[in-house]
Amino acid sequence: MHPTFFDAMTARADARFRAAEQAGAVLFVTVLTAIAAQISIPLPFTPVPFTFQPMVVLVGAAALGSRLGMASQVLYLALGLAGLPVFAASPALPQGMLRLVGPTGGYLMSYPLAAFVAGSLAERGFDRQYATALVAMIAGLLVVFAGGVLWLSLVFRAGALSGGLAAGFYPFIVPDLAKLVAAAGVMPGLWRLTRTTR
């Protein structure tokens, strides 16, 4: 197993402050996820808006690792369930618990698992090189799409997988992959930067 970027950045810190550093890092990624949700573009042909959340979820998990990355998304969902305005704007559903049973509920509920997958691969060194970082992020994105499409198919499309794919996969796969192509360079770039500044 390899140290995560967060581990490397806090390796010399006093062990007494380790829990506080971890909590701060988790909260930071949670806040970034909530901010990314506010950059939301509704699409007329699907109940699922275009957001930057998946990219933030996966980059954050790569930086923190599986356990802390997953914790950041569990906290995000908990804040949303508590009614805080952390979810993307919706003309149909208010903030809070109802959002998780709405059309985007499958995507939201998949975030902790997607973060765990991307973080686990980062712990195996996938975040050090561009190509493997891209693989790790695609693996996490597939988890997000699986949760979202299955939810749309089973809950909102009467079991029709084709309907779920039409509403929740086809409109988003190309733009989301484009986002990941750009985002996959973040972690290798940070690793290179820390090596050159030490």
Written description of the protein model:
The protein has one domain (5-197): Orthogonal Bundle (Arp2/3 complex 21 kDa subunit ARPC3), CATH 1.10.1760. The chain has nine helices and no strands. It has helices at residues 5-9, 18-38, 53-64, 66-81, 105-122, 130-156, 161-168, 173-183, 186-197. The relative contact order is 0.15.
Structural class comes to: mainly alpha
- Could you say which overall geometry the principal axes of the C-alpha atoms support? globular
- CATH topology, by name, is Arp2/3 complex 21 kDa subunit ARPC3
Give the SSE string: HHHHHHHHH
The residue-averaged pLDDT reads: 91
What summary fits the major beta sheet?
Answer: none
Helical proportion? 55-70%
CATH class reads Mainly Alpha
Give me the count of strands: 0
Q: What is the second-level CATH architecture?
A: Orthogonal Bundle
Query: Proportion of β residues?
Result: under 5%
Radius of gyration: 17 Å
Low-confidence stretches: none
State the domain count: 1
Q: How many angstroms does the end-to-end distance come to?
A: 22 Å
Per DSSP, the total helix count is: 9
